[in-house]
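Saturday, quiet lab. Running sequence design on the structure tokens for the scaffold JK sent over.
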């Protein structure tokens, strides 16, 4: 066997090994991506009533969503609660998140994406929601301007 044949054989085996390693790495990467939460934005409503709580919010701060079945304005209201237990607003009635949580009973992981309107009289909140991760939605008693 000539030197060129031996080198070609080693090179071909090296390419095959590299390709196999690459495919295994990509399969592991895809699995990791499936397990990682995919966050989607959600602008909440009613923030003008909860400005004192919103002033303390920071991006990536965890938020809990809870159902308020005794809410006099909406028996399917979903409140957004900061990690100190304060209401910061509500999930809009026509939101895709509300449908997923109430009809499909999906779990969710929620965090603050941004506080909007810094320096203005009232500030808003945009959340990030990852469905299929975290906890299923809980319940609480409605509290006016909590």
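Result came back. Writing it out in full:
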């Amino acid at each position: 066997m000539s030197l060129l044949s031996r080198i070609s054989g080693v090179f071909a085996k090296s390419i095959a090994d590299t390709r196999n390693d690459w495919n295994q790495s990509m399969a592991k990467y895809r699995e990791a991506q499936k397990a990682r939460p995919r966050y989607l934005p959600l602008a909440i409503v009613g923030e003008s009533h909860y400005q004192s709580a919103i002033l303390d919010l920071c991006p990536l701060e965890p938020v809990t969503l809870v159902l308020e079945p005794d809410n006099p304005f909406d028996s399917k209201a979903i409140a957004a609660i900061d990690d100190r237990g304060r209401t910061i607003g509500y999930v809009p009635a026509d939101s895709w998140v509300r449908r997923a949580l109430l009809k499909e009973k999906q779990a969710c992981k929620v965090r603050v994406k941004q506080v909007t309107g810094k320096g203005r009289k009232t500030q808003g909140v945009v959340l990030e929601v990852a469905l299929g991760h975290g906890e299923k939605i809980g319940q609480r008693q409605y509290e006016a301007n909590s």
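Notes for JK: The longest strand covers residues 108-116. Residues 1-36 form one domain. Ask whether to fix the surface positions before the next round.
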